[in-house]
Amino acid sequence: MPVGRRVRRPPSHRPSLFFLLLAMVRLLPHYGWTVEDDEPGELLLARLREKLTPLGFEPWREMTCRGEYHGGPDVIVCHDPCSDYLSELTVFGRTREALGHLAQTLGVDWSDDVREPESRHR
Questions:
Q1: How much is the pLDDT for 122?
Q2: Whole-angstrom Cα Rg for the chain
Q3: Which residues 6+ apart lie within 8 Å of 91 measured at CB?
Q4: Highest-confidence range of 5-19, 25-39, 40-54, by mean pLDDT?
Q5: 115 DSSP assignment
Q6: What is the pTM of this model?
């Protein structure tokens, strides 16, 4: 390596991004409207990857085995087929309407499966 050049590390190696991921994974169920799907199917996952933006987090062994995080308007989606903490597909929305809009975009109906934020039950 040439002298004076800095080694650029992937974002997941920065402690601040680890703490951002940790906060996201712990705070979203508390404050966000939630939908969980234990068997989302390949078609839904393909639509999700096509319509939403990857958030760029690498999976952390403490949190997930290989979680993918995607974001859209007022929603964050976690797909992790072997998580102990979340379902295989967990969708968090700032509002119930945001989850409804995403469901319409993806061609699914989650209207009966939406859970209120945990913070509303305290």
A1: 64
A2: 16
A3: 34, 35, 36, 37, 75, 76, 77, 78, 99, 102, 110
A4: 40-54
A5: B
A6: 0.79
